[in-house]
Structure formats: C-alpha cells, structure tokens
Design brief:
Rossmann fold, binds magnesium ion, binds adenosine-5'-triphosphate, 4 domains, Beta-Lactamase, PAS, 46% helix, Helicase, Ruva Protein, domain 3, 5-stranded parallel beta sheet, 480 residues, PAS_4, single chain, 6-stranded antiparallel beta sheet, alpha/beta
Amino acid sequence: MEKLFELSHQNPALFVDILESIKDAIFISDHEGTTLWLNSASEAMCGVPKNKITGRNVRDLEKEGLFKPSVLRMALEEGKNVSTVQTVGEGRKYIATGHLVKNKEGKVIAAVAHLRDITDAVKNTSKLQEIEELLEKYSAQIRKLTSTKTNINGVENVKLGGKSNSRILAKKIIEKIAAVDTTALIVGETGTGKSLAAEKIHLLSKRRNGPFVQINCASLPESLLESELFGYEKGSFTGATSKGKTGLIKAAEAGTLFLDEIGEVPLHLQTKILHFLQSKTYMPIGAREPRNADVRIIAATNRDLEQMVEEGTFRSDLFYRLNILTVKIPSLRESRDDIEDLATYFLNMFNEKYNKNKRFSNEVLKKLIQYSWPGNIRELENLIERLVILSEDEFIEEKDLPQKMVEQHMSSNSPYISDRGTMTEILEEMEKKMIIDALEKENSTRKAAKFLGVSQSLLMRRIKKYNIQLVVEESKTFVK
Ligand SMILES: Nc1ncnc2c1ncn2[C@@H]1O[C@H](COP(=O)(O)OP(=O)(O)OP(=O)(O)O)[C@@H](O)[C@H]1O
Ligand SMILES: [Mg+2]
C-alpha cells in the first residue's frame, strides 16, 4: 500500500493510468450525479467524446438515452451499491454496478460505475434458450414417434400367429413372464415380433390397465435419452427459464416401460438403468431427491448382449439383472413351419383391409417357405401387403414375387456350379443382391451396413459400384 502511495506521489496520474488500462468501463460522478471523469473504455462505449459528457448530470444523460437505466442515479437514489443490466448506445448489454464512495463520516462524496460488456454472454444464453426450446419440440416429436401408450387395444387385438414348436414355446414363456411382475428381456432378430411380445406381456399382466410406454433406445443420442427416461427438474439447463419435464419412467407409473434396443444404451446410462432396476428409484436430471416409481421394465434387443459383455460394451451386472426372465423369439429361418401359417394370417388380414380376395398359388407358397427372410415376420408382412395390393389376378403367382425370391432357389440349389457366369460375376451378383436385400430391409445405409457387418463407407462404395439407385423419403432410404 505504502509503495503504491509512493508511486502515486511520483506520478500523480497513476490512478488515472490504472483506470485507463482496464478494459471495463469506469464512470465517476460526484454525490449529485454530475460526471467527473470517465475512462476511454467508457467513452468508446457511449460513442460520445469525454468532454461532451464530463460536467453533465447522469439523470440528463439517462433522459437523452445514452444509457438505460443509469446505475449511478440508482445507487445515489437508493443510497447503496446497485447492480443492473444496462443497455448503452446501440443496444449492447452491460452488467453495471454503481458503487458509492464515502468519506470518513460516511457521507457520500462520489459514485463510481463499473460496466462489463455481456452482449456475447447474453447472446449465448438466448441461443441456449432457443436450443432448449428446439430440443423441447424435438423431444415431443420423438415421444410421438418412439413412445406410444397402447392399452386402448385390449389383449384380443394383439395376436401372436405361428404354430411352429419354437414359436409355441416362445408364446408359453411369454405367458409365464406375464404372470409375474419382474424385469424381462426379449431377444431375437429384427422383425421377429419382440415389440409385439412386449405389448402382449403387458396386456396379459396385472398391469394391463396401466400405461404401456415404449422407447427405442437406438433412436436418441445419450443426453436426450437420459432426459427422456428420467426427466429433468425445472431450471436444470439454462437457469430459471427451463420448465422441467416428466420422464418416461414417471409416464409409465403403475404400468410397463418397454426399453427397445437396450443394446444401444451407452454405458453411462446403463449404470443409471441398473440403479433403477435395483432400487426402483431414480433421479431426474438436476433433482436433489430420488423419486420412487412403480414401473415394470421389459427390455428387448437384437444384439448379442453376452458378446457385448465380453467386449466391454454392455455392463455385465445389468445383463444378469435383465437376463433373469428371457424369451427368445425365433427367426423365421428357425421356424419355417410358421411361414405358411403367418403368410395366410397376413393374407386374410390384408384381403380384409383392402377388400380383396387374393390367394397364393402353390408355387408361391413354396417360394415363401424356401426364402431366407432376413427381415423375418416384418418382411413377410410387408411383402404380403404389397402382393395383395399389386398382384393383378386372384391368384398371387410366382411372377408377382420379387426377383430375389425367385432366384434364391436356383442359387441355393447349386451355389458352386453354375452356368450363370464366372466366379467373380456370381460373387458380385450375390454381393449386389445381399446389399439390396439389406437396404430394403433396413431402409437406412447405416443400418444396412451394420446388418451386413461391413463399414458404411464400404457399403457406399459398393452401392456406387453396382449403380444401386437410392431414394430417400421421410428420412428412410429405399432402393429405386
Ligand atoms: N407372431 C406374430 N403374429 C403376427 N404378427 C406378428 C407376429 N410377430 C410379429 N408380427 C408383426 O411383425 C411386425 C414386426 O414385429 P415387431 O415390430 O414386434 O418386431 P421386432 O422384433 O420388435 O422388430 P425390431 O427388431 O425391428 O424392433 C409387426 O407388424 C408385428 O405386428
Ligand atoms: Mg421392435
């Protein structure tokens, strides 16, 4: 301190130099609000030369709109230090503090305003608010798309067709799972009927009058998935403005929460889900107290969770917790006896829906039974709907089937000896066919690549090589 006074003795303008050297605006008035001095930062901020401001009262400057409001006027009127957001000149925003300077007797002798530019910070906050509003909108959309409450239907409307031994066994297990009230896991390839099975379990269970809420865990990025599941408290993100949101766990109270594609949940969230399964309590984001929930979890996956545990991408403790009651829904390849039954089931269904009376020719039935059905029941259902709509005659004939199903038999009969070309040609033809099949099944190049076990970039190169024409509609990719 003494050294400072010594320096100021040597240089009487020292304190002015110090005030000039800082980037924040400093504005000094006497006890009545008459401007005594302002630093250059302050001058630049006001956009008016210093000499036009000094000597003038802050109240007049405020009236002229140089700044709104005048923090010095406020401090002097209120007799205490005051902070506010001040708009200066062209609308830049400043956080302004008015300090009162008092003498030994406590009498106000001057007032100092200190202003810091917060325009960018304010912009960022309002951007955050915009983003949050957008997120809110997306989240509502996502909820519409990924989660449905389906206990309007009643159990009789959820029919599980198929008479093969493996499917009958699966149906028996589903009934047993429905009779108890613990976490259950449904595994099976894509399109085998896992979602339908989850709904059936709910509708057969004692929770049937409660909500059935489902969410596809693969459809959301981690942070959104977390807030969808657990919800968040008011003010968790950008301060007081965020409204807070009920999570799906709460929405499923007294009912069932179906976590589809559980294999896609990131590790960090797996921990939280495990915690919920163990304690039946959860913490909404930003909450201080845990919440209780009476919700049954049913999870489903087409991934090999055991292998994921080995690879370290799925928590073993969560796997064991989920794997207590497990039902495996067979693929159509594993339950070929189901094909005719299900095909007839869908044929009747779509005949009724489209007011038609189509029937399968024997040849067509044979082909359906021989086909490999990578997309399982969904693929069968979609194909039959298409056949009912598009076939011309009463009998659905072989010519109505997609090329891949007609060719399949030929190539599977003699995969090595063929008069259809050289080995490279045949392999390329098979590769092209597999790619088209995968794309038709998955309607996404990313998913098709995953299904085929190749990288997306390799798949894209092959799509180009084979000149496979794609069209994208409603964010789904179709083969032209
Ligand atoms: N046993 C069945 N009887 C009649 N229809 C079925 C049966 N199983 C599935 N389906 C129908 O097949 C289609 C696909 O079923 P679902 O969506 O349940 O499969 P998934 O295994 O959940 O598929 P993904 O892995 O893609 O989520 C649905 O339209 C469903 O109604
Ligand atoms: Mg599903």
